[in-house]
Amino acid sequence: MAEPRFVPDRLKTRFQVQAALRLATTRNIPVVVARRGDQDAGVILLKLNRRDLGFEVLVQSRNGAGDLVWQRVTGAVPVPESDVDAYIERAVKRDPDLWVIEIEDRDARPLFAGAII
Fold this sequence. Notes:
By secondary structure, the chain is an alpha/beta fold. The protein has one domain (about 15-110): hypothetical protein tt1805, CATH 3.40.1530.20. Helix content is about 25%, strand content about 25%. It has a 6-stranded mixed beta sheet with strand order 1-5-2-3-4-6, with helices on both faces. Strand 3 and strand 4 (about 70) form a beta hairpin.
């Protein structure tokens, strides 16, 4: 029988966002906090503008081991911005504590901790 894994309390959302904004500044990556959610425990949704490649949506989640991961909810290939905006609108209706962070980076360089799945 596997031992339960201790998962420490996660870093408050506002601090995760602040750290990502600072990292984006150092990398000259345009970032906008499009929507502020719950300061302490709001889930983060990333709207990635890959420029001529299209858009992606990544949602913060935890895997079975409790590790932070990002789920690519728009599929393996970028989609039109209208599809992304429709997804975000539905997500905000389901979760009013949701944060929406817009990132413009063709290379989709990571600004937040956690693997993309």
